[in-house]
Amino acid sequence: MQDIEGFRVSRRTALKWSLAGLAATGLAGGLRSAAADTLADIKKRGELVVATEMQFPPFDISDNGVYKGVDRELIDAVAKELGVKVSYLDLPWTSVLPGLEAKKFDLVIAPVTITKERMKRYAFSVPIADATASLMKRADDKTITKPEDLAGKTVGGQKGTAQVAQFKEFAAKLPKPVEVKEYVDNNQSYADLAAGRIDAAINSLPNLAYAASQRPEAFALVLPPFGQPTYFSWVARPDDQSLIEAVNAAIVKLDGDGTMAKIQTTWFGQPTALPTTVPEPKI
């Protein structure tokens, strides 16, 4: 899900979607028997099927059934470059990567942190945003001014994320043990934080910065970030090189023509430069 170095993404028009309706078409089953050249198959269909979890603002948001956010805007722009339309699947985070491996869809646009282990299993796009692990506290909590102040406290984050894994490593070096609570999605950790059931929430810096900006009376960032500088990308299956290369070419083009900067400004308040090649992961 450390420096404030690199936010990336996009947003276009909000459209309604229906996961149940898409499933009823049997599209997922059709993808399982797709041709080996996924990009050619996508262009033949005229449709790119993507999956994400629409509970990850500002990247993915379901607003009364309307999908919007950074990933929505960016994938719409990428699909336009590819000359195809997009179908969007909303899945729990824990189902997204297994679903990709099972060939239930073409591409994961849920932001996936680039890690050494994941690089062995997936083909990553060029970065679409910063993913540096950070913390958020209650705005009125004066006991926490830096990450080290979480010693002896309780922290929550989304289960299965690189950010939670990084925090566990960080917490192991603190002088007092830290209780780490894991949630199905980040909104649950934010709710518990606001209610005082945990002392801080873990997520990527851009996610937490967005959450704090939306509710400044309730939340505040804990700076500096504690994690190693990392990035979010989209992922495809490792044998779908032609697809990921086409996606990368589109992202780089959108970066060059100013579209990426517009998307970043919309959701993060300012444009930020990101690598135009996949960086070697630090974690």
From TrEMBL:
Coiled coil: none
GO MF annotation: an example: ligand-gated monoatomic ion channel activity
Gene3D superfamilies: Periplasmic binding protein-like II
Sorted UniProt keywords: Signal
InterPro entries attached to this UniProt entry: Iontro_rcpt_C, Solute-binding_3/MltF_N, TAT_signal
Record keyword Amino-acid biosynthesis present: no
A cellular component annotation (GO) from this entry: membrane
Short name of one Pfam family: SBP_bac_3
Domain Ionotropic glutamate receptor C-terminal: 47-270
Domain Solute-binding protein family 3/N-terminal: 47-271
PANTHER family hit by this protein: AMINO-ACID-BINDING PROTEIN YXEM-RELATED, MEMBRANE-BOUND LYTIC MUREIN TRANSGLYCOSYLASE F
The protein's name: Amino acid ABC transporter substrate-binding protein (PAAT family)
Native organism taxonomy: Bacteria, Pseudomonadati, Pseudomonadota, Alphaproteobacteria, Hyphomicrobiales
